[in-house]
Structure formats: structure tokens, C-alpha cells
């Protein structure tokens, strides 16, 4: 093969690294390194000499490390073999990314595990050419531009599985509403990715999450939507009104049950739920009767705080809305033990008048 007199590389958009076609060089060969490029001489898998932008005539003085390996005579134009690699330091933009498999994340508000996918784009720039080359040679040996892109993309996707889950949990926003925070999440993940990938000599730029998606027909997503709907209803109508409405529905269903066994069940349900209804109605009526229309009513008393036991562990400081969310996601049922200040012992949720309406479902009367 002919000896090369000029070694140079015209940057190709999007190509991070390029190996010069020929290894056959000689002393006196001209090396041209364009702006935003760094050139490396590589021999036997080891990086030897490095050149920044400029034009160089190769001699024993400007390739001292390579010359030490080759032991070329001073001042000669002897031929030698070495690889020349050019690293492109311009940014490569608009690279797509996407989670190849769903990430199972617990919704931070409603505690339901949902399969989540995400996709977007990012850019990459070589900021430390030597660290970049050392990473490639040490990890891959031989490589193409496509292999390099896949090398970094694989590390980004691997990190994203953890970073996305952390961002969703840390923001405390339901997965159903997470698309309102994509910009803030993108900026934070961009910073975290740079901390992880800095050792490879690259920087991630303009990282963007374009969407976070989940299957609408998945059972966990349906349960999550139901939990959100229940929480919204409690917030809008007020806890006492919601409890009273649910209790009346249960009483009506019990009264319409014509069977003897159903009558006894209806009586039991009526007595248990009736206490809750009476308390709720009495409290509401008392508030209206004791309120002077000419005066500003006093602030309502604080809502009761409950404790529940799940798998032998106490979960403290829960409101009725919190317990409703646990019921919606299936973590709490009628037999779950509950305690609140003023109760001498733990009781099943079904025996707590103020909570029984959350689990009681009205049943239709028998068909005629």
C-alpha cells in the first residue's frame, strides 16, 4: 500500500469519532486537525500522542511516545504503521431514546404500581477527547460510529430506568398528572446523566422527555383512575356529606331486602351504619342549629386521624381520604385493623362507624 503524505478528516455531521483509512505513514507526513477536532495516534491498542487543531509535520519530536515504541532514527523519513483517530467535538443532536420495556413505578399519591413507558430525545458532545478514547479502547477494542452510539445509548437507557422512577416519586405527583412536569424532570435528569457519564468524556445536552405513557386498559391504571376520582369526590363534596350519602344508600338497600335472612342482615347493617348516619346527620344538624346567622361561624374542628395495620406494620396519621385511597388500590379492606384516639382497642374497619361507609356498597333489591 502507498505511503500516505497527508492525514486529515473532514468532519461528518453526527459522527463522533473517525479512524483514518490507512495505517501506513512515514516521518514527514502532514497531519491536519480541523477546529473542534482532536487527533490521536494509537499503536497496539494504546493511545500514544494527541494533537489539537492545527497542521503538523510528523517527526520524532512531536510524536515522542509513538517514536519510543517504534524507535525510529532521528531525522529520517522512515515508514511506520499506526492508527490515527479523529474525535469530533461538535454536538450530535436529536438522538431518540425510549424505554424498551415498561418501568413499574408506584404512584406516589395513590400507592398503586403502574407500568410506565417514556420516550424523548437528547444530544451528546465529546468534552474530554482522551477520556472518550480511553473508554472506547478499554471497553470495546474495535468500534464503529454506530457501535459508539449504541454504547452510550445503552448506558443512558439503563440509568433512565432508575432516574425516571426517582423523579416521579420525588415530585409527589400522580402518574396520571406527570406530563405537566416533563420540563422540570428533563432538566433534572440531564444534570444527573452528566454526573454519571462524565467519566466517559461526554456530556449530554438538551435531554428531553417528550411523553410518559401507560396502557389505558391496564387493570392497575383503571384502579388508579378510580382512586383519583374518589379522592376528588371527597375533596369536592366534603367528607361528611360523602359518608352520609353512602350510609343512606346502604340503609335503603337493606330496607328493600325482602328475604328473612336479608331482613336480619339489613337490621345488622342498619344498626351499624345507622350509628354512622346518625352521628353524621346529628353533627351536621347541630352545626346549623347552633350557628347564629348574624355571626361568622367558628372554624371546624380538625379531622380525626387514624392508624391502620397492614402486614403487621402500623401506618399512622391517616385521614379518611387517605384510607379511601388505600381501599381503592386494594391495600385495605373490611377486616383491616383500625385505631384512632379515643378507641380502647384496635377494631376491624367494618366496625368503625365513621369508616364503614367507605366499604359498604348498596345492593339492588331482588327481582320481582
Automatic annotation (TrEMBL):
Q: Which domain of life is it from?
A: Bacteria
| Limits of the SPFH domain | 23-226
Instruction: Fetch the InterPro entries from UniProt.
Output: Band_7/SPFH_dom_sf, GYF_2, SPFH_YdjI
Ranges for domain GYF? 306-355
PANTHER family in alphabetical order: FLOTILLIN BAND_7_5 DOMAIN PROTEIN (PTHR37826), ZINC-RIBBON DOMAIN-CONTAINING PROTEIN (PTHR37826:SF2)
State the protein's name: SPFH domain-containing protein
Q: What is the lineage of its organism?
A: Bacteria, Pseudomonadati, Bacteroidota, Bacteroidia, Bacteroidales
Amino acid at each position: 500500500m502507498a505511503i500516505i503524505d497527508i492525514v486529515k478528516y473532514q468532519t461528518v455531521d453526527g459522527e463522533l469519532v473517525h479512524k483514518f483509512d490507512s495505517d501506513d505513514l512515514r516521518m514527514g507526513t502532514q497531519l491536519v486537525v480541523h477546529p473542534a477536532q482532536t487527533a490521536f495516534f494509537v499503536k497496539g491498542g494504546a493511545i500514544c500522542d494527541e494533537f489539537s487543531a492545527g497542521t503538523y509535520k510528523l517527526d520524532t519530536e512531536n510524536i515522542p511516545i509513538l517514536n519510543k515504541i517504534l524507535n525510529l532514527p532521528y531525522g529520517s523519513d522512515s515508514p511506520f504503521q499506526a492508527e490515527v483517530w479523529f474525535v469530533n467535538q461538535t454536538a450530535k443532536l436529536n438522538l431518540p431514546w425510549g424505554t424498551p420495556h415498561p418501568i413499574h413505578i408506584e404512584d406516589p399519591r395513590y400507592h398503586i404500581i403502574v407500568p410506565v413507558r417514556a420516550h424523548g430525545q437528547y444530544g451528546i458532545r465529546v468534552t474530554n477527547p482522551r477520556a472518550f478514547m480511553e473508554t472506547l479502547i478499554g471497553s470495546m477494542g474495535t468500534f464503529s460510529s454506530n457501535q459508539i452510539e449504541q454504547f452510550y445509548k445503552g448506558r443512558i437507557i439503563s440509568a433512565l430506568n432508575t432516574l425516571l422512577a426517582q423523579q416521579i416519586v420525588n415530585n409527589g405527583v400522580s402518574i396520571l398528572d406527570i406530563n405537566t412536569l416533563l420540563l422540570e424532570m428533563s432538566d433534572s435528569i440531564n444534570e444527573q446523566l452528566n454526573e454519571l457519564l462524565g467519566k466517559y468524556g461526554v456530556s449530554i445536552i438538551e435531554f428531553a422527555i417528550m411523553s410518559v405513557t401507560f396502557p389505558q386498559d391496564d387493570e392497575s391504571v383503571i384502579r388508579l383512575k378510580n382512586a383519583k376520582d374518589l379522592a376528588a369526590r371527597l375533596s369536592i363534596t366534603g367528607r361528611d356529606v360523602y359518608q352520609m350519602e353512602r350510609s343512606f344508600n346502604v340503609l335503603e338497600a337493606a330496607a328493600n331486602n325482602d328475604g328473612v335472612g336479608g331482613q336480619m342482615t339489613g337490621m345488622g347493617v342498619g344498626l351499624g351504619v345507622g350509628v354512622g348516619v346518625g352521628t353524621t346527620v346529628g353533627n351536621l344538624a347541630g352545626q346549623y342549629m347552633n350557628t347564629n346567622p348574624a355571626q361568622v361561624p367558628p372554624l371546624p374542628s380538625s379531622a380525626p386521624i387514624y392508624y391502620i395495620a397492614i402486614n403487621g406494620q402500623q401506618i399512622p396519621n391517616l385521614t379518611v381520604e387517605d384510607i379511601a385511597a388505600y381501599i381503592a388500590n386494594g391495600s385495605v379492606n373490611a377486616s383491616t385493623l383500625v385505631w384512632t384516639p379515643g378507641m380502647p382497642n384496635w377494631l376491624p374497619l367494618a366496625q368503625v362507624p365513621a369508616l364503614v361507609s367507605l366499604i359498604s356498597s348498596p345492593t339492588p333489591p331482588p327481582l320481582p
